[in-house]
Amino acid sequence: MPPPASGQSCAPVFPPVPLSADAAPFTPLGTEGWQFNSQSDAERQFARCASKLRSLRGDSAQLREELNLLFDQLMSENYNKTMNPSINIRPEDVCVLLKHASCLVPLSQEHLVIKLCQLVHHLLNQLKVIMDEQTLDVLVTYTVQALSVCSTWTHSEILLALSTIVYGNGPQCHKHLNELLGKDGVLLLYSSPSQPDMELRRVTLTCMANICLRIPGQPPLDDQYRIVCFQVFLKTLQAPKPPNTDELFYCMVIQAALKGLQWCLSSGKWRFGGGEELGSVLATIKRLMFQGAPGVSVEWPAVLYPAPLPQYEGLSAPKPPEPPKEAATTSKASGVRQAFLSLGINIGGFHLKISSLKNNGRVRQGALHCLLAVVKGVEKRTLYGYWSSFIPDSPIGGPPPLTLLTIILKDPSPKVRACALQVLSAMLDGSRQFLGVAEDTASPRTSFTPFSFSLATAIRELHRALSLALLAETSAHTLTQVIKCLAYLVANVPYHRLRPGLLSPLWKQMRPYVRHRDVNVRVSVLTLFGALVTTQAPLPEVQLLLRQPEGGGGRAGSFTPQDSALSWRQRDGVSSPSPETGPPWLLQLCVALVTQPREDQSDSEGTGQGGALEPSPVRLEALQVLAHLVRGYFSLAQACLCEIGQMCARCLGETDPSIQLHGAKLLEELGTGIIQQYRAESSIPESSRIPMSQVVQFWSEVLSGPLNGALQNEQHPTLQTSACDTLSTILPQAFAQLPSQMMCITVLLGLTYSENYLVKTAAVRALGVYILFPCLREDVMFVADTANTILAALDDRSPNVRAKAAWSLGNLTDTLIVNIVGVDFQEELSDMLILKMLQAATRGSADKDRVKCNAVRALGNLLHFLRHSQLTRSVFQRPLEDAVRALVQTVQSEATMKVRWNACYALGNAFRNPALPLGKCSAPWSCDAFSALCSVVTSCKNFKVRIKSAAALSVPAHRGCYGDLERFRCVWRSLATALENSEDTNDFLEYRYCASLRHTLSQALLHLLSVSQSGDMPALGASLAGEEGTGIKEHLIKYLREEEAGDGAEGAKDGERDSVNLQCARCLTCFFDAATLLDRSSNKTPLQCRQDVLFDKN
């Protein structure tokens, strides 16, 4: 036997073994062993050929023969990393080999040029080599020169190599792009619809598509060339099929153009023209979505135009007619056929030849990928106008409209159906604002069809068609896409504006699929249930569904083979709850999925603790559904509080960090639900709340379980973060009765020193929650420890940590204000600690807006809290001035409105401190504070900022706080001007605050009147006497009338308010020349005085 040819893999040689009974039994070499030898041969072959190639010189007499042999040997090996993942050929070795080979092959040797191009394609494609810039430039230059020098018959192979070289490297080939894609460029020449060679045209389009491909992290192709490629691809797709062209080659050209169009559109936002161009692309894509579909003889439009979308509707939506219900069937197949017949669909219409079906299916799939790129790249508001071209707004009947639903229901290829579902999911994702207009609950009208009703009809048709697709689908992958699409639909539809009845059939139809054999289907079903319990929660229809027992409501609409089998969850001992008292079926299901053995375990294996649990994705999704259920329907889940807590403890005790994390998040949702029940504004009666003893027991069990271990798990900082968030959701009343208070506080204080910023942020935030607890806020030691921790966090490098630290500092200073009545507390708190907090809050006011908005809140509280003994100390003088100036600068700055609103509120809070020397000449910062507020109340565009500045100006309790007459007159004039201009705004959204602004301004002016002195009367009288004063008096009288109406309803029981109003009435009476009505010795009541003034009785 002759030796094997050079470059071919040699068969393994086994040593001779004598035939003997004592010989060892034959053991065949395993797969790994064979693979190892094969990989080793490929690597050795490459190294040998590369070494031989590097030794060749251009002047060798046998260069052509040697190159020919080496190229053949290199291409004879399989370097595919998909087949051999462990193959180890360095990219730099491939680059060196190809660069040297390009130097050795002259362009005159066209056969060698073709072999080199084949080698380039073979190595780069199989080894997935990322080339360096020099190699890229050398190879692109060589192939471009070859296209201009070599004969036309070589260009297909050259372009194939070029397409492999430029794959994802389009922007790096900028030096050659003009030669390729410029005017009279070779790629434009060969991609023209007039090019007769279809294979050359296909390779050219593939090369252009690879140039347009954008690799993540790299810049996109220059718009100049991207638009050129886009126009070529679109022109190719719009051109008719050339006569006498093979169907296969034509489909391959269309596929290449579709791939190029997809990559052009995927490079970023739409940049290819206006509505005409977009409509042209969508029309072309829609035509190709039905490529090869039999019986489709439609005159396709060249351009799709958007439907006009009304912005506002003045009339109610009509009630739609009831759609005809399909007759009940006894089997899945007959039910699906009956449904298809009711839609006017010919089931046998897609019976195509296998080859034609495959090629046209790829075209339809490519068109749908392009449509998906359009959906992702075009602004949603623009795309909404084209929805009617792809989503029907009425039940399909008669000649079926060609939409995405047609493909989802009729296309024979599961891949094409899956692509159509992905497109529909992308269109539905984020469409809540658009679909929110839909409504069909109002009484019917026949004169016209409002847009809201049309949209509601489209939603009902989507439900109907996707339900049919759910019944008909046989591919597990496509079935997963159907359910995911339903989840996107449910998450974005305003069911509270639609007639009930859409969710109940879907709920019942989905129940059997939780036992589907495919894991991905089970996960998607849970995702859909999560969307059902999340949308507009609590939704009455979903509440009724949750209360139904597992067997309740029948199996209407459920045509799955699993219906005839006994539920495996029932076999595992999960009983059906009663409709009134038992926990929801969905809650029981999710708990069982998390804690019980998986469903494919046979009865003979038993269901003990040793059984395998559900796959991790199923358990994680079940935990997320439980979190959604607890958040939206806590009243239905609270009966299982302890059981869910035990399940969470079990999850925290597992080794999978994801399961631990979702268990902690579920605990956080439970804590949040309990807190919401006990809020002061909660409308839940006390008898329906979880008893306090049960809440204490729940948290005692949680804190004595594995949560403490999760808090200290430094290997998983995300889990530590979630555990800190869980601690922050303990009910304050229950915390006071817990024996683990010290443990919680100690752990949180320790975690604020974590090196991970997420953990530190969560710990600082939790301390900011604890500082508001009634059982802790009077503990001076805890307040001091928390303050020192927050001060350290305010100097952290992470802006997230500083933002939460500023929020916690604001909460801590709120606690100081609550404790301001306790003299002992003020004296026990260190002056130096107060000073440090004042200085830290002042520094925070110069930080980012996220930090600044709470830093100024803390400054206002601290300035309110300072005692006279502290203000007189020299060490406080400079920080005090800096703090007030920081507030003044924030009020006058261009920061966000929330920051300025907080700064105005903080100044008003500071004015409540009677120890502050507001009106004294020794405090020049007080003049700056009043000036800033006066400026903002008249000039700020945001009315909420104006309201808070006006409220701050009305805070000082005494006339002396306003300073001299000039400052008092400035404040009055600013408030009066603001009242006169209270409706002047260019922002329509600000008008909703006009009434509140006028109310606050009137209250502030009346307050100034109440504290005014005799020396202020001439200036105020002059202000009210003129034409401007007439409007002011009208507003003030209107305000007093509103106050009077309020007093009549509530009874005049607030003596202090009546006293203030009496003073205001006296002042107004003086200005209205009715002073005789309100003699200081008058025996009239405040109510009578105000009535005299209001009605101008003389």
UniProtKB/TrEMBL annotation:
Transmembrane segments: none annotated. It holds the Pfam family HEAT_EZ. This is HEAT repeat-containing protein 6. Residues 559-579 have a biased composition (Polar residues). The gene is HEATR6. PANTHER family: HEAT REPEAT-CONTAINING PROTEIN 6, MALARIA ANTIGEN-RELATED. It comes from Myripristis murdjan. Residues 551-583 are annotated as: Disordered. InterPro entries: ARM-like (IPR011989), ARM-type_fold (IPR016024), DUF4042 (IPR025283), HEAT6 (IPR052107). Residues 362-542 form the DUF4042 domain.
